[in-house]
Amino acid sequence: MVKKIMVVAMLSSFLCGCGSFASRFEAGYHDEYYSGVKYSVYQANRGYGVYYLDVPFSFIFDTVMLPADLIRIESTH
């Protein structure tokens, strides 16, 4: 049981905010607010269901990054 909990914890830490990083650096969502959530939902709808697990983590990371995103996005317009 302890091994299963450790495996789930490790997988969760690897997935934490993965959509947020991918959306900012490679996916073309870098000019949108909550881009990690949008990217994760898009990937999940394409058939990569594991991205549904990433949505809450991306939401948290995108919320933390919101002030920086506001400055970055508004300065480019």
UniProtKB/TrEMBL annotation:
This is YceK/YidQ family lipoprotein. The lineage of its organism: Bacteria, Pseudomonadati, Pseudomonadota, Gammaproteobacteria, Enterobacterales. Residues 1-22 form the signal peptide. Keywords: Lipoprotein, Signal. It comes from the Bacteria.
